[in-house]
Design brief:
It comes from Roseobacter denitrificans (strain ATCC 33942 / OCh 114) (Erythrobacter sp. (strain OCh 114)). This is Partition protein ParB. Keywords: Plasmid. This protein is mainly alpha-helical. The chain has a domain of 30 residues. Helix content is 43%, strand content 0%. The chain contains 3 helices and no strands. Helix 2 packs across helix 3. The radius of gyration is 29 Å and the shape is rod-shaped. The relative contact order is 0.05.
Length: 92
């Protein structure tokens, strides 16, 4: 190869890793349209860490029937599901 090597003068320099420098670099990147590309966790609704509430997926008609029955009894859908589960477990 002939000619000058324009990259020969480049030297590696350590990058700043303080919280302020990282924040500033992130702000500049976001302003110029760069997006966060870190891997995401699994999609979907996570169970509640406090109550460990489940979010079952049911057919729309079944969901409407559960909601109507819970309202008729004056309890929450969760309470109705708990009652149904206890009956199911105690089934011979």
């Amino acid at each position: 190869m002939t000619g000058s090597n324009r990259l020969a003068g480049l030297k590696a320099r350590p990058k700043g890793t303080t919280v302020e420098e990282v924040r500033r670099v992130d702000e500049v990147g976001e302003a110029r349209g760069f997006l966060d590309r870190t891997p995401r966790k699994k999609p979907g609704r996570k169970p509640s860490p406090r109550t460990h509430q489940l979010h079952p997926k049911v057919f729309p008609t079944v969901g409407q029937e559960i909601a109507a029955e819970a309202e008729r009894l004056g309890i929450t859908q969760g309470q109705l599901i708990e009652e149904m589960w206890s009956i199911y477990k105690n089934k011979p």
